[in-house]
C-alpha cells in the first residue's frame, strides 16, 4: 500500500495499484457566502469504509436548518402513502353525516316544540283575554215588570230569618255609576268608569288572573266592556246589595257574633289581596264595595283594576273611607296601610250600625270631614264608636279598630295580625 500527499490531499494506492477513494462531505458555513466547512471524511479500504465525523453535534452542524431533526429514511406514510392512518372524515364520513342529520333534526324538533309551546301559550292568552272582554251587545237590560216591581225593595227580617233583604234586578235603577244587565241570563252589575285606560302587559296579566279568581269573600269579576258607549267593569250581582245599603236601611238587628263574622269576611278578603303578588292592595275599599250574598257572606268587589284606579279620580264621598295620607298625596291606586284604615272605617259602620261617619246625625259635611282627616293633628278626627250598651261585643274589637285607623301608616297593624286577632276574638264569643 502506497501513501503520499498529493495536490488534492492524501492519496492511498493499494497493492493492486488502485487508488482508494477518500470522500469529504462539506456544508455551507453560517458566515461568508462561499465559505464551507468539512463535515465528514469517508475513507474506503477494500471492503472497509471508515466514517470520520468532523463535527461535534450532528443536529446542530448538519440539520440545523431542518429544525435540528435528521430526515427519515422512509416517509411516515411510506413512499406510496399506504402506511398513513385513514383520515377521520374519510373513515367515519357516514357516521358524521348521520350525526349531523340527527342533530339538525333534534334542533329543528326542539325549535318546533318551542314554537308550538309559544303558540299554545299565546293562544291561551288570547282565549283568556277574550273571556274577560265582554261585547256590549251581549249585555241585556232586565225586563221591566211594572212600577211596583221596579220600586220593590223590602227589608223585612234579621239575618237569622228565613226571609231576608233581597233586591230583584227589576227593582234596581241605573245610576251614573252603576248599570244593571243580564249576561248569559245571569244578573250582573256594571260599574261605569269615566276614564278609559291604555292597558299594558301587566294589566292583561291582572285581568286574566281576576277572571279565573274564585274566593269566598271576593265578588266574581266577569270582565270589561270596551265597545260600549260607556267603559264598564262587570261584576256578579248580589241580591242583598251592599253592606252600606243594609246598614243605612236600619232595620237589621246585628248581634255581636254576626258583627264579628262580617268583619272577618272583609278581613279575609283583604288578607288574600294583600298576600297576592298580582293584586297587592285594594286601594278603594268602602262599605259600598262590600256586597252581601244570599248566605249573608261579604263579597268584596272592585279589587285589582289598577290601570283604571290610577287615572280615575275619587269622589268626595269615597274619600270618607280614605286614609289621611291617601287624601294628602293623591295616591290613586292605594296602599296596604290605606286599606287597613278603610277596613277600620267599615268596622265602625258595622259595630255602630250607623252610616259611615254617622254623617246623617253629625253637624259636618263630607267636605269638612275629609278636610279635617287630611289635616290630621294630635287628635285627628275619627268616627265615634258609640255602640249599643246591650250589645255583648268584645272590647278588643274597638281597640283593634282604633289601632287600624291610627294616623301613622307604619303603626297600623298588618292584615296578618288583624286576621289572627279576629280569629281569637271569634273563638271567645
UniProtKB/TrEMBL annotation:
Reactions that this protein is recorded to catalyse: GTP = 3',5'-cyclic GMP + diphosphate
Transmembrane intervals: 92-118
GO biological process: receptor guanylyl cyclase signaling pathway
GO molecular function (one): peptide receptor activity
Domain of life per record: Eukaryota
GO cellular component: plasma membrane
Organism name: Acrobeloides nanus
Domain Protein kinase: from-to ranges: 137-422
EC supergroup of this enzyme: lyase
UniProt-listed Enzyme Commission number(s): 4.6.1.2
Full protein name: guanylate cyclase
UniProtKB keywords: cGMP biosynthesis, Lyase, Membrane, Nucleotide-binding, Transmembrane, Transmembrane helix
A Pfam family hit: PK_Tyr_Ser-Thr
Amino acid at each position: 500500500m502506497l501513501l503520499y500527499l498529493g495536490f488534492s490531499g492524501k492519496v492511498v494506492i493499494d497493492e493492486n495499484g488502485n487508488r482508494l477513494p477518500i470522500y469529504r462531505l462539506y456544508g455551507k458555513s453560517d458566515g461568508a457566502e462561499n465559505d464551507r466547512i468539512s463535515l465528514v471524511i469517508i475513507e474506503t479500504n477494500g471492503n472497509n469504509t471508515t466514517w470520520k465525523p468532523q463535527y461535534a453535534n450532528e443536529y446542530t452542524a448538519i440539520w440545523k436548518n431542518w429544525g435540528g431533526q435528521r430526515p427519515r429514511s422512509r416517509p411516515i406514510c411510506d413512499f406510496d402513502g399506504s402506511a398513513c392512518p385513514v383520515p377521520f372524515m374519510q373513515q367515519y364520513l357516514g357516521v358524521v353525516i348521520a350525526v349531523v342529520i340527527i342533530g339538525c333534526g333534534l334542533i329543528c324538533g326542539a325549535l318546533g316544540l318551542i314554537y308550538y309551546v309559544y303558540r299554545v301559550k299565546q293562544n291561551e292568552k288570547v282565549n283568556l283575554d277574550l273571556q274577560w272582554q265582554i261585547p256590549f251587545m251581549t249585555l241585556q237590560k232586565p225586563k221591566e215588570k211594572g212600577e211596583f216591581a221596579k220600586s220593590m225593595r223590602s227589608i223585612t227580617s234579621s239575618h237569622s230569618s228565613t226571609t231576608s233583604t233581597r233586591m230583584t234586578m227589576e227593582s234596581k235603577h241605573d245610576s251614573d255609576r252603576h248599570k244593571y244587565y243580564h249576561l248569559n241570563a245571569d244578573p250582573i252589575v256594571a260599574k261605569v268608569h269615566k276614564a278609559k285606560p291604555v292597558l299594558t302587559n301587566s294589566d292583561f296579566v291582572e285581568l286574566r288572573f281576576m277572571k279565573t279568581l274564585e274566593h269566598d269573600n271576593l265578588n266574581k269579576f266577569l270582565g270589561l266592556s270596551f265597545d260600549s258607549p260607556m267603559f264598564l267593569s262587570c261584576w256578579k250581582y248580589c241580591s242583598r246589595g251592599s253592606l252600606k245599603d243594609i246598614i243605612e236601611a236600619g232595620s237589621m238587628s246585628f248581634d255581636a257574633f254576626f258583627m264579628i263574622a262580617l268583619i272577618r269576611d272583609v278581613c279575609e278578603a283583604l288578607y288574600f289581596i294583600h298576600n297576592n303578588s298580582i293584586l297587592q292592595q285594594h286601594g278603594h275599599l268602602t262599605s259600598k264595595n262590600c256586597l252581601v250574598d244570599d248566605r249573608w257572606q261579604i263579597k268584596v268587589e272592585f279589587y285589582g283594576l289598577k290601570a283604571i284606579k290610577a287615572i280615575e279620580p275619587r269622589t268626595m264621598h269615597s274619600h270618607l273611607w280614605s286614609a289621611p295620607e291617601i287624601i294628602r298625596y293623591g295616591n290613586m291606586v292605594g296602599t296596604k296601610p290605606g286599606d287597613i284604615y278603610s277596613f277600620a272605617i267599615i268596622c265602625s259602620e258595622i259595630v255602630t250600625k250607623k252610616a259611615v261617619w254617622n254623617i246623617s246625625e253629625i253637624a259636618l259635611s263630607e267636605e269638612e270631614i275629609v278636610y279635617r282627616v287630611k289635616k290630621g293633628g294630635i287628635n285627628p278626627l275619627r268616627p265615634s264608636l258609640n255602640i249599643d250598651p246591650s250589645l255583648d261585643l268584645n272590647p278588643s274589637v274597638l281597640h283593634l279598630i282604633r289601632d287600624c285607623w291610627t294616623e301613622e301608616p307604619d303603626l297600623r297593624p298588618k292584615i296578618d295580625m288583624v286576621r289572627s286577632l279576629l280569629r281569637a276574638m271569634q273563638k271567645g264569643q
